[in-house]
Design brief:
Blueprint lengths: L31 H13 L12 E9 L4 E6 L4 E7 L4 E6 L5 E6 L6 E8 L4 E10 L1 E6 L5 E6 L4 E6 L4 E7 L4 E6 L6 E5 L4 E6 L4 H4 L12 E7 L4 E6 L5 E6 L4 E6 L13 E7 L4 E6 L5 E6 L4 E6 L4 E7 L4 E6 L5 E6 L4 E6 L4 E7 L4 E6 L5 E6 L4 E6 L4 E7 L4 E10 L2
Antiparallel strand pairs: 1-2, 1-32, 2-3, 4-5, 5-6, 6-7, 8-9, 9-10, 10-11, 12-13, 13-14, 14-15, 16-17, 17-18, 18-19, 20-21, 21-22, 22-23, 24-25, 25-26, 26-27, 28-29, 29-30, 30-31
Length: 425
């Protein structure tokens, strides 16, 4: 991921993603030519562990390229680059809609101006709309129903709430200083914002109903967006995750050696009512920059950038189970769908580490391009994609053998990835 603007620089591994250039100013992309040649041979005959797809099935991976103002679109079915399309200035993130065939790209723009969101129709693989937001938007999250999006505006100290069907901003809420991540809880009742320069976490009521979005009066049981609580003391607040039941959140404090465990307010239904509260400050490694949650919600893995390690946290008890050495500057983790393996990008290397969760130990590594950062699985999990920020390519890994399948070229400064699968009518 690209730089989050802030008044003070703190260790933030996603901020380190920059294209590697030699002294002559040329992109250094080791291995791309060799792998592009081998790709023709590899895709000519699919291996037995590759899925068989119906004729109307489509699946694409979308990579935002901060240095070329583009998005690279990869055909997952045929494992090839499909096209590269122009978006806005300095795209910093890309998110898929869980319900409709759309991808949203955050364009941070120039420091003195506002940014906007590009809407890509995945059936056409073309930009079909733009939605203006505010200064230096950095991250976008979409609710579970695919109706609303939440955009952290780093340069405006605010969050924009977007009606995705109407293609417009319907509310703006103030946050702390330099919000980096805005995440909506799975139940849609809590919006969490990490304020990187403000060293704090904001918890808000999203407060938007379809009636409000269409310009009508608010629904009787819903209010407009409002600030619920601010939790101080999280230096360099960066990444955050919610548990699947929305009962708790964890936040990484990247300018320290801690993460926060935050209890999320619950209404008095099947359990006693409770308010938002800080449960614990958990000691992990130095510069925790990313949190990877197991799909079952039982554990969260912390990427400790300056300790070259991960920490394993039991989410029910807030116990830190241990720290394990990974590689040089671990920056991003991703857990397999069966909860058995953690894949970890080591940014200052050409390596993805593999950690066996049940065994509690490192189980090998996979050689990829230079500066691996963002990760994503294919929909069926047979492929793992790693965005190589320094060499400007996408590593395609076969999960069955935990080996590199090929490298595909991206634009300059690739920083984020999203995958979308669908069937044509």
């Amino acid at each position: 991921m690209t730089n989050l603007p802030s008044k003070s620089r703190t260790p933030d591994a996603p901020s380190l993603a920059r294209p590697y250039r030699d002294q002559g100013g040329r992109d250094n992309r080791p291995g791309v030519v060799v792998f592009l040649f081998s790709l023709t041979l590899l895709t000519a005959c699919k291996n037995h562990d590759f899925p068989e797809y119906p004729a109307n099935y489509r699946e694409f991976a979308y990579v935002s390229n901060g240095g070329s103002n583009t998005v690279s679109i990869f055909d997952v079915v045929n494992v090839r680059l499909d096209r590269e399309i122009q978006v806005g200035i300095n795209p910093t993130g890309v998110t898929a809609n869980p319900k409709s065939n759309e991808i949203y790209v955050v364009n941070s723009g120039l420091p003195q101006g506002n940014g906007f969101i590009s809407v890509i129709n995945t059936e056409q693989n073309a930009v079909v709309a733009t939605i203006p937001v505010h200064k230096q938007p950095y991250f976008l999250d979409v609710d579970a129903e695919g109706d609303f999006a939440y955009v952290a505006n780093t340069g405006s100290n605010s969050v924009s709430i977007l009606d995705l069907k109407a293609r417009r901003e319907i509310a703006v809420v103030g946050t702390g200083e330099a919000p980096g991540v805005a995440k909506i809880s799975p139940d849609g009742k809590t919006l969490l914002v990490t304020n990187r320069s403000g060293n704090s976490v904001s918890l808000l009521n999203p407060g938007i109903s379809p009636a409000v979005a269409s310009g009508q009066s608010p629904a009787p049981n819903r209010a407009f967006p409002s600030l619920r609580k601010v939790i101080e003391g999280c230096p360099g607040a960066t990444d955050a995750v919610f548990l699947p039941d929305s009962s708790k959140a964890f936040v990484a404090c990247s300018a320290s050696h801690q993460i926060l465990a935050i209890a999320i307010a619950q209404q008095a239904t099947k359990v006693p009512a409770r308010a938002d509260a800080l449960e614990a400050r958990l000691d992990v490694g130095r510069s925790p920059v990313h949190l990877a949650l197991k799909p079952d919600g039982g554990e969260v893995f912390v990427s400790n950038f300056d300790s070259n390690s991960i920490s394993e946290v039991i989410t029910t008890t807030n116990d830190v189970g241990g720290a394990y050495l990974m590689g040089s500057h671990p920056v991003r983790g991703l857990v397999s769908a069966d909860n058995s393996l953690l894949y970890e990008s080591n940014f200052s290397s050409q390596e993805i580490s593999v950690y066996a969760i049940d065994d509690g130990k490192r189980a090998g590594s996979i050689h990829v391009g230079d500066g691996p950062d963002a990760l994503a699985f294919s929909t069926r999990g047979h492929l793992l994609f790693a965005v190589d920020a320094r060499s400007g390519d996408l590593a395609v890994i076969r999960t069955s053998t935990r080996s590199l399948f090929t490298l595909l070229p991206t634009g300059r400064m690739p920083n984020a990835i999203a995958v979308k699968a669908f069937r044509l009518p």
